[in-house]
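Could you join me in thinking about how sequence relates to backbone shape in a protein? We need material for that, and I hope you will provide a protein of your own picking. Label the sequence line and the structure token line clearly, so we can match residues to local backbone shapes. Would you write everything just below, so we can both look at the same thing?
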Amino acid sequence: MLTRRAALMGAAGAVSLPIFARAAKAEEALTPAAAPADLSKLKRIRRELVAPPFVHEHEQVAPGEPRIVEFEMTIVEKEIQVDDGAYLQGMTFNGSIPGPMMVVHQDDYVELTLINPPQNMLQHNIDFHAATGALGGGALTLVNPGEKTVLRFKATRPGTFVYHCAPGGPMIPWHVVAGMVGSIMVLPRDGLKDHEGRRVSYDRVYYIGENEFYIPKDEAGVYKRYGDVGESYLDTLEVMNGLVPSHVVFNGKVGALTGDNALKAAVGEKVLFVHSQGNRDSRPHLIGGHGDLVWEAGKFNNVPDRDLETWFIRGGSAGAALYEFLQPGVYAYVNHNLIEAVNLGATAHVVVAGDWNNDLMEQVVAPTEMTGI
């Protein structure tokens, strides 16, 4: 495997070797020596992950005692078209950017089978911000191409959390900005609560993962395109270190959640928006709507804020906002750094069906030509 790892990076091979060595040593040092936990009496269920912005089937209130919830996720290295003429050598969980959202309840056990197929070039792992110990599981899940591993952890804290790849050293930010980031939602066993402790529910949940990409350009200002992920490393590293992204997008590319891909809702529906950012701060805003209840830091033990116009997502975290749509039409869900929303791509649309309410807003006089000037 060492020869393969040296070759996979092409020109960056010599740089990559000490990085991989450090990652392997970290894994060995943190491998625990303890008797296996006896969870044989717990019920097991299997959830099939779906690509964002959608979320797999789940209950909002836990149906009984804690369970072991099984997931399987495959790492896919592939080229992704981010915009016209702009291609990313992406690294993904299950082929999507962001990776799929997992949903469990507090005190459930998450059991993930993580697969790194032999056709991939790089080592990968997974760090769950929802987990406790071993670098969020990253120290126990480092897999080379052609390997798989199974990690189980207890979801002790309710909320929305980021997960991401963290194989060690400079590989960590590169893998994250190449797409290897996702989210897990740990619901309270008795469901979400409002600011007065009353149970609230949602009719739909949408997962919006915000990513910034650093796609290199040539001397003529044209985006470069690479044959594989290893070939792209050195140029991408140089752009990354400048901290100026070429794109800031929702769900992997410009326009991923607009046009035919716009999110859908109806007047009277309550929609839970889960928003994650693995690397930079963001500020979601729903143009024409509000955050009725907002768990800005994403942690459901905390009392939600109310009636927010814009909320803050810290880099390396996920937050949640619940809104009941009251008017039909097209709503823009944006990063309210409007330069990033309009010029770099961080915009989604929600198309809402239903009847207009003139009591909430009415066009008293339509635009007409002014006279007498």
Summary: The CA atoms of residues 92 and 180 lie 5 Å apart.
